[in-house]
UniProtKB/TrEMBL annotation:
Protein name as annotated: GNAT family N-acetyltransferase
Chain ranges of the N-acetyltransferase domain: 72-207
Record-linked InterPro entries: Acyl_CoA_acyltransferase, GNAT_dom
Native species: Amycolatopsis nalaikhensis
CDD domains linked to this entry: NAT_SF
Length: 207
C-alpha cells in the first residue's frame, strides 16, 4: 500500500489488517526477494518503499509485483518491511505507533525473558527464551503470533529478536504440539534441548 496521506489511514478502520505486508529481520544487503528473485543484478530498478502501517522501510520486488498483478489469488510477497531486531525497547519507552519490539525483564526467580512484538501499541506476537550465562546456552521456550497476523514473518522475526540478545550462545528449541506449530518449528535451525543444565531454575538475566 502506498499511502500519501500520512496518519489519516493508519487506524486500521479501512481493513488494512488483511493487507499487511510481510516483515523480515533487517539484514545488510537484500540479495533476493521472498520468492528468490535476485535483486542484486541490476535487472530492475530497486524500489525502497516505506510502510506507513509499520513505520518501517522495506523492499519491493518488481518481478513479484507484476506476477501478483496477474494473479489476484497469489500471496502478497512483492513488498516486505525490514525490522531491525537489535532495536528492542523497554516496555514504558516503546513508541506507540508502528511495529516495534519490546523486551521485558525476566520475572523474579526465573531466567525466562520475553520479547513482545507490538503494532500500534497492541501485542501481536511474543517470544520467551531462557538463557544460561554460565553455559552460554539458551532455549527458545515459546513463540506465539496472534491468528490474524500469521504467515507474515512475525514469528521468525521474533525468533531472530531472541537470538539477537545472545547471538554467540548455543540455541535449542523444544518440539511443540500440533501441525501448525511443528511446521513453524521445523523451519528454525535449532536442535532440541538436551538435559537441563546444572544452573536451570536459578535466577539469571538475559543481558
Ligand atoms: Zn520477487
Ligand atoms: Zn547452565
Amino acid at each position: 500500500m502506498i499511502d500519501h496521506t500520512g496518519a489519516a489511514v493508519r487506524s486500521g478502520a479501512r481493513g488494512e489488517f488483511g493487507g499487511l505486508i510481510p516483515i523480515r529481520p533487517a539484514t545488510g544487503n537484500v540479495a533476493v526477494c521472498l520468492r528468490g528473485h535476485r535483486l542484486d543484478l541490476d535487472l530492475y530498478d530497486k524500489l525502497k518503499p516505506y510502510s506507513h502501517r509499520y513505520r518501517r522501510h522495506g523492499t519491493l520486488c518488481e518481478v513479484c509485483r507484476a506476477q501478483e498483478g496477474c494473479d489476484p489469488g497469489a500471496r502478497r510477497l512483492a513488498e516486505w518491511a525490514h525490522l531491525d531486531v537489535t532495536v528492542q525497547y523497554e516496555p514504558d519507552t516503546a513508541p506507540g505507533d508502528g511495529l516495534v519490539l519490546v523486551a521485558h525483564a525476566p520475572v523474579a526467580g526465573t531466567r525466562a525473558g520475553r520479547i513482545e512484538l507490538r503494532l500500534d501499541g497492541t501485542e501481536v506476537g511474543t517470544v520467551t527464551a531462557s538463557p544460561c550465562v554460565s553455559c552460554r546456552t539458551a532455549t527458545l521456550d515459546y513463540v506465539h503470533v496472534a491468528a490474524e497476523y500469521r504467515r507474515l514473518g512475525f514469528g521468525r522475526t521474533l525468533v531472530a529478536a531472541a537470538v539477537a540478545r545472545a547471538p554467540s550462545y548455543r540455541w535449542t528449541a523444544p518440539l511443540p504440539d500440533g501441525p501448525v506449530a511443528q511446521s513453524f518449528r521445523a523451519r528454525i535451525a535449532m536442535r532440541r534441548p538436551g538435559q537441563p543444565c546444572a544452573h536451570a531454575g536459578k535466577a539469571g538475566l538475559t543481558r
